[in-house]
Write a structure and sequence with these properties.
The chain is of the alpha/beta class and 458 residues long. It has helices at 75-81, 101-114, 128-138, 153-163, 188-205, 226-230, 329-342, 368-380, 406-416, 430-433, 445-449, and strands at residues 11-13, 19-20, 36-38, 90-95, 119-123, 145-149, 167-171, 208-213, 233-238, 245-253, 261-267, 270-273, 292-299, 302-314, 322-325, 350-356, 388-390, 393-394, 400-401, 420-424, 438-442. The protein has 3 domains: 9-39; 68-275, 3-Layer(aba) Sandwich (Rossmann fold), CATH 3.40.50.300; 280-452, Ribosomal Protein S5, domain 2, CATH 3.30.230. β10 (245-253) and β11 form a beta hairpin. The protein is elongated. Residues 351-458 are annotated as: Lon-protease-like.
Length: 458
């Protein structure tokens, strides 16, 4: 008797295309979790030519009025997007749970509706009553704002046809499912199908669409990587739960820059814009304090003043502690080694703690010089001048390297009221950057530490 063989379906990774004969939870090629799913059947034959909806025309004859951005009513969001939302454009907003994604988009929906434009807010995570309670608290109730609690893709499309909105918000794309596709909502196949259907409707009808996306443990958008390729804009909403400050960054933007950030303050009655967040990262001391130094970091195109603090105490253990908060611990360790080698600061018996003020995350190399001055000041108990800013990257040979956008950084420091600056020597246009600040170019970290000479000891 001839034996019969069972043909197993092929499984493919949505991230890299790796295939296997059996399902696995983790891709064997790119090591991504939850991306392996049943491959779609391939039909034999060649695709035939088909009628087109609109013929191809010369690019000079393509109308661009329908693709111009429209202000959302929130200046910080429009700043990140490059002017506003685009009709027919699809935006994906990702962020950790509880960071304020729904609160921000509800405020966007309310301001869009107050301008007399229909808005549809589809909630797949909360009931309509729960969203209404939050809208009452934040003052986001308007007759042009339509609310629907729906988790079925077919129902979402029906709501779109019924309301005919100019702005659509789906919170979130991982909670919507389609009965025509296998898998549970949030799976790779379901997310791909839901996103494709919503994007197709948005492009066809010119609906500006905002999608909320969940994130994984490492901060990336959950679901298939193809989701980020399908949408026009990918925004990351960041913030520390211990701080009210929230930062909005553009990871991908087909309509504008990707080096802008928006600042928001999460308050009890909603979320408000912070057009000038500089003061949030600088503390005020009644008396001069050792172990502090102010620097200017670039968040996108926006210069922000931030304060670095350091504390050095005699260690009670054979292995001294090195603790950093808001700073890159590996760079801090490198700076401590440079101070020991080139400035004669002996830290072998000292615990060193470094931190940024206000929950700021300072990972730019330009803050190296401020970390070095703050640490040097803490060890020797010398007070840095209160009107001094330090900007520069520190190398392993003890040199101070040039940084980008130095003119913009110094202009921001001058606007806040700082009178002196320590910057890398050889930076272009130092004599024309500003006329009121006293700028001290330095070649090495040893020269930079001389700014503390003559300071009164505590």
């Amino acid at each position: 008797m001839a034996s019969t063989k069972t043909v197993r379906p092929a499984y493919v990774c949505a991230e890299c295309g790796w295939t296997t004969s059996k399902w696995v939870g983790r891709c064997g090629e790119c090591q991504a979790w939850g991306t392996v799913d049943v491959a779609a059947p391939v039909r034999a034959g060649r695709t035939q030519a088909a009628p087109v909806a609109t013929p191809a025309v010369p690019i000079s004859q393509v109308a661009i009025e329908s693709a111009r951005s429209v202000g959302s009513g929130i200046g910080e969001l429009d700043r990140v997007l490059g002017g506003g939302v685009v009709p027919g454009g699809v935006l994906l907003l990702a962020g950790e749970p509880g960071v304020g994604k729904s609160t921000l988009l509800l405020e966007v929906a309310a301001r869009w509706a107050r301008a007399g434009r229909r808005t549809l807010y589809v909630s797949g995570e909360e009931s309509a009553a729960q969203v209404r309670l939050r809208a009452e608290r934040t003052g986001a109730v308007d007759d042009n704002l339509y609310l629907a609690a729906e988790t079925d893709l077919g129902g979402v499309l029906t709501h779109i046809d019924t309301v005919d909105p100019s702005l659509l918000i789906v919170d979130s794309v991982q909670t919507i499912g389609s009965a025509d596709v296998e898998g549970v909502p949030g799976g790779v196949t379901q997310v791909r199908e839901v996103a494709s259907a919503v994007i197709q409707r948005a492009k066809r009808d010119g609906i500006a669409t905002l999608l909320v996306g969940h994130v994984t443990k490492d901060g990336s958008v959950a679901g298939p990587r193809v989701l980020e390729h399908l949408v026009d804009v990918v925004l990351q909403f960041e913030g520390d739960r211990s701080s009210r400050l929230r930062l909005l960054r553009a990871v991908k933007n087909r309509f504008g820059p990707v080096d802008e950030i928006g600042c928001f303050d999460l308050v009890d009655d909603g979320i408000v814009e912070v057009p000038d967040p500089t003061g949030l990262f600088v503390s005020r001391h009644a008396q001069p304090v050792a172990g502090t130094c102010v620097t200017v970091t670039m968040e996108g195109r926006r210069p922000l003043l931030a304060e670095v603090q350091a504390l050095s105490v005699t260690s009670s253990t054979p292995s001294p502690r090195r603790t950093s908060s808001g700073l890159d611990s590996s760079r801090v360790a490198m700076i401590l080694a440079v101070l020991t080698k080139h400035c004669g600061v002996h830290l072998g018996q000292h615990d060193v703690y470094t931190a940024s003020v206000g929950g700021a995350r300072l990972v730019e190399p330009s803050v190296d010089l401020a970390v070095a001055i703050a640490t040097f000041s803490a060890v020797l108990e010398l007070v840095a001048p209160p009107d001094l800013v330090a900007i520069g990257e520190v190398g392993l040979a003890g040199e101070v390297r040039k940084v980008s956008n130095l003119a913009a950084r110094l202009r921001e420091a001058e606007r806040i009221g700082f009178k002196r600056a320590v910057v890398p020597a050889g930076s272009e246009g130092l004599d024309t950057i500003t006329s009121t600040m006293s700028i001290r170019p330095v070649h090495t970290i040893r020269e930079a530490m001389a700014c503390l000479d003559g300071a009164a000891k505590l």
